[in-house]
Amino acid sequence: MKVILAEKPSVARTIASVVGASTRKDGYFEGNDYQVTWAIGHLVGLSMPKAYGYEKWSLNHLPIIPQPFKLEIIEDPSIKKQFKVIESLFKNCKEIIVATDAGREGELIYRYIHLLAIPAENVTIKRLWISDLTDNTIRKGLEQLRPIAEFDLLYHAARARSEADWLVGINFTQGYTLASGKGKPLSIGRVQTATLRLIVDRYSEHTSFQSTAFFIPKITLEDPNKPFVLSCEEKYKDRASAELLLNDLKDSMSAPIESTNKVSREKAPLLYDLTTLQRTANKVYKYTAKQTLDTAQALYERHKLVTYPRTDSQYLTVIQKPEIIKTFEKMDTISIREITTDSLKETCIKGVTDNPVFNNGKVTDHHAIIPTGKTGRLDDLSEVEKNLYLMIVQRFYQSFLPDCEKTTRRLQTIIGEQFFNTSSKQTLKIGWRVLSPEGEPEAMLPTLQPKECRTILETVIHEGMTKPKPIYTESSLLGSMETAGQFVQDKSLREGLKERGLGTPATRAAIIETLIKREYIIRAKGKLLPTEIGAGLINSIKELSVCSPELTGDWEFKLKQVERGDLAYEEFMSEIRSYVNITFPKLLESAQMVKELQTSEEKERDFSFGSCPKCSGGEIRKGKKSAYCTNWNADPKCNFTIWLSSFGKKLTDTQVSNLIHKRETSKLKGFKSKAGKPFSAQLVLDSEFKVKLLFQKK
Question: Which residues form the Toprim domain (predicted)?
Fold first, then answer.
């Protein structure tokens, strides 16, 4: 019997249908000499400190440096049950086919399961390495299985990354939290903290920016059709200097104009990788990075309409050329911006021959995101799925259409020693822009003879103000995470970040969501803003490399060396252990700076509604679920309580305050009966200080 291990149930179901394992069992499919089972993501992970005897957080035993690390099954009954299924299948089979995601983390998922499940000694283990879940690709992949040993170095790199992140995340989070005196954990991690720093630094730079005026001299010249304006290339810091330049024109009624025409080609855009897809979806539809990732995953797993989405490549391999032609031939006719894709098919197929999108050196684990060619009804997709799928299809066609050819006309003159110029563009051949028009065409500037003079009709000085770099949106943050090497001085570290950036395409959405969940940042009108505690954390550890892209650059550079076999796993881990031991005491010192800052929970806990109406001696404080009297544990006790959610409605602070001090609210909407029906009523405080509903008579 052959056992195939997929990463998720949905993938297992797809593979099972291809290999003929049609009988559903408890935790796997069986049939045709195959058993197809699944992990549930990271089913096995590194053990927490409790497994090493450290149940409570304490500075006395930090930092914790396990040697060796222990593994444990995730604490969840359904996960433990599934592990037992995998373990049983592994011990009773002749061959294991690893079909977890083709990449560093997918490899780690299998290897950790393998270490705990311990397959039979004589079992053969092979790797399925594919980039989409169409039936043909799965069949072809099963015909070209690779020995698992080919991926040992990939596993060593994945294991090193996992253990290094544990050492930094566990020790730095516990140490910093304890030293800061906060009851709520203040999480620190290599990637999330460096990402938080980008947000904090940009926000600080934006809010502290001092805007200054600049002045641009402009001249308007006559033309029979429409006067045109030339602008000075230099921006002046003061109006007087700009006026001085224009004063030279007082005796000049005309200016000699030099005209040039240049034809240029605008290359077709590359295919989408996950990050560019997330950035575009955020700009066009305001979708969050997580929303785009989840939707792309659904298009891949459930609908089989696109290839593997968690990719960092915008290219395809040369061997895929025949496959791409077949994909165009299979594609359903779709209308994009009132253009039917059928009308573009022949041109796109011709564009396959010498297209720069085919580049073996630019494809690592997975190629770019493209349609699979599978037919399907768009009406079966949700609105978000449909929008994202059409974006991927649009980019697929664009990438194989010809370049867009444009002519640029530039008019220029010299006044004093300064150049004044303007330009206009006109499309000659629309090419790939047929699916992405740029709006209204520009009015073309006049055709002039060499050094032709034109009368100066007017001179003006345009005044503008300098602007700061904008606060991060998800789109711009994803761009900075991807190109984090720009923030790094060291060339070799910059190269490490060039390949990976901060996080991976698959993890960047989760990093943003984690920062929001931990209340380090908030989303506000499409912007990402740091909270007080988020900014305080970064400002306190700014001098430590844990919040700098350099650390990730260093790690990724060396992890790539591990992957290639140029650096041993143990050598890398020795450096990480040394780094943690050296940095840990510095981190404890830094934590003193945030002692006075309050987390949102601490602010809420200290919020007071005033004196208690029942006992008069206590204050009414706001807890997580109720407003309560501070004399709840005094002698005598006061049990005054107002639940913040009453009769299915969440109360505002104003409504709670009115109940306490006025003993009633106004008529409120949004209550729900036990049957789930909405109704309106007042809330009142009765003579026993209990909250009751009051229905007004009609």
Answer: 1-133
